[in-house]
Specification:
CATH superfamily: Sodium:dicarboxylate symporter
Distance between the termini: 7 Å
Number of domains: 1
Number of strands: 0
Mean pLDDT: 79
Number of helices: 22
Low-confidence stretches: 1-9, 351-356, 431-439
Radius of gyration: 22 Å
Shape: globular
Order of helices and strands: HHHHHHHHHHHHHHHHHHHHHH
Largest sheet: none
Structural class: mainly alpha
Helix content: over 70%
Length: 439
């Protein structure tokens, strides 16, 4: 949003670094949850994590609006918006297919569900997800993109609804030309103020991470990890391979190193890890990508859209969990059924976007189409879904960051000097507020 802050010779004390504070909070939260589970399950501990996520979510709609409107209204060529959107969607579909495929390959090779014994826990806990999956229709998803009212879109914080209105408003300002200059200037200034609020809210990130981790471990207990450690380990390993191999290859083609990129956004990654929500770091990701050399218009279009259409972690989970359940229940899925998983998961992962518990609902929808006999097996993974959601959120988050850089590169709107400076840490990426105050 503003000029970049160059690193000075004086470095911050280690304990003042956000990622260090969040990492310490995550570890302490895990310890408290394991040693004092009753205390950790308390309403106030849970409120720490939930409260922080709500603070971030309240800023997502205005940030998307300011960023998208500002980006589009300054564009001279109206066709560019459509071109960027098409490129983003093509990229999303290609990479999502790779994510689904790698989940299938690893599940067939490792067979994490083999030897489970076919025992199904009480399936009543997953009935509501099966019901919601049955009610989910593609046409409803499309109609839901159109808000009943503009105010309602902002009130609900629905990313796609806010994005639609922001695109239309941006085009309107573009058409107005010089007459819309005052509004454009106001929105540009408002964006700085909004990111200033984010800088303040981020001070509470360690508190939010502590509360979320303590509650999760306290409620589900370390034993939940132990019972299905094979599936959890396989999922995390698969996500790691996807990031390093698939996203790493794509990053290399676009001219940057995936590991350096991950290091650049490590503060936000730890916030996502602590809160199990990729949305909790969306505003900071948009700011950092712009400072990394991506154009404002590409960041404004690709990041919000990616949060609904580029769910790499969710896609890996869908295919891996489906085969795990089939293996655990002793149900053999032939090649045709596994290809059906690929196609169905690609559709259902889009259809449940924005729904609470979307990962589990999309899994239910996929299982019911592939084989209804698999649906009760959801109860096997229900207890550890919270631990799986952290990995889903992390992979989705990193995937959307890479997508934005790649689309900027594809659109010839990537500042390679800024990219190099950012990834080589010649620019201080540790504070959102630094960029805001120097803007």
């Amino acid at each position: 949003m503003g000029s970049d802050a160059v690193v000075t010779g004086k470095k911050k004390p280690v304990l003042q670094l956000l990622y260090v504070q969040v990492l310490i909070a995550i570890v302490l939260g895990g310890v408290v949850g394991a040693l004092f589970p009753e205390f950790a399950k308390g309403d106030w501990i849970k409120a720490m994590g939930d409260g922080f996520i709500k603070l971030i979510k309240m800023m997502i709609a205005p940030i998307i609006f300011c960023t998208v409107v500002s980006g589009i209204s300054h564009i001279q060529d109206a066709k560019k918006v459509g071109r960027v959107g098409v490129k983003a969607l093509v990229y999303f579909e290609i990479v999502s297919t790779f994510a689904l495929a790698i989940g299938l390959l690893v599940a067939n090779f490792v067979k994490p569900g083999a030897g489970f014994g076919g025992k199904i826990p009480d399936a009543s806990s997953v009935e509501k997800f099966s019901k919601q999956a049955g009610e989910m229709k593609s046409v409803d998803f499309v109609l839901n993109i159109i808000p009943d009212s503009v105010v309602g879109a902002f009130a609900k914080g629905d990313i796609l609804q806010v994005l639609l209105f922001s695109i239309l408003f941006g085009f309107s300002l573009m058409i107005l030309g010089e007459r819309g200059k005052a509004i454009r200037t106001f929105i540009d200034d408002a964006a700085h103020a909004v990111f200033g609020v984010i800088a303040i809210v981020m001070k509470a990130a360690p508190v939010g991470a502590f509360g979320a981790m303590a509650f999760t471990v306290g409620k589900y207990g370390p034993q939940a990890l132990g019972n299905l450690a094979g599936l959890i380990g396989t999922f995390y390993l698969t996500a790691f391979l996807f990031i390093v191999v698939v996203l790493g290859t794509i990053a290399r083609l676009a001219g940057f190193n995936i590991l350096r990129f991950v290091a650049y956004i490590k503060d936000e990654i730890l916030v996502v890890l602590g809160t199990s929500s990729s949305e909790s770091a969306l505003p900071m990701l948009m700011e950092k990508l712009e400072r990394l050399g991506c154009s404002k218009s590409v960041v404004g279009l690709v990041v919000p859209t990616g949060y609904s259409f580029n769910l790499d972690g969710t896609n890996i989970y869908m295919t891996l969990a489906t085969l795990f359940i089939a293996q655990a229940l002793g149900i053999d899925l032939d090649f045709g059924q596994q290809m059906t998983i690929l196609v169905v998961a690609m559709l259902t992962s889009k259809g449940a976007s924005g729904i609470s518990g979307a990962g589990f609902i999309t899994l239910a929808a996929t299982l019911s189409v592939v084989s209804p006999a698999l649906v009760p097996g959801m109860a096997i993974v229900f207890g550890i879904d919270k631990f799986m959601s952290e990995c889903r959120a992390l992979t989705n988050f990193i995937g959307n960051g890479v997508a934005t850089v790649v689309v900027s590169w594809w659109e010839n709107e990537l500042d390679h000097d800024k990219l190099k400076a950012g990834l080589n840490r010649q620019i201080d990426p540790s504070d959102v507020e630094t960029a805001v105050t120097t803007g």
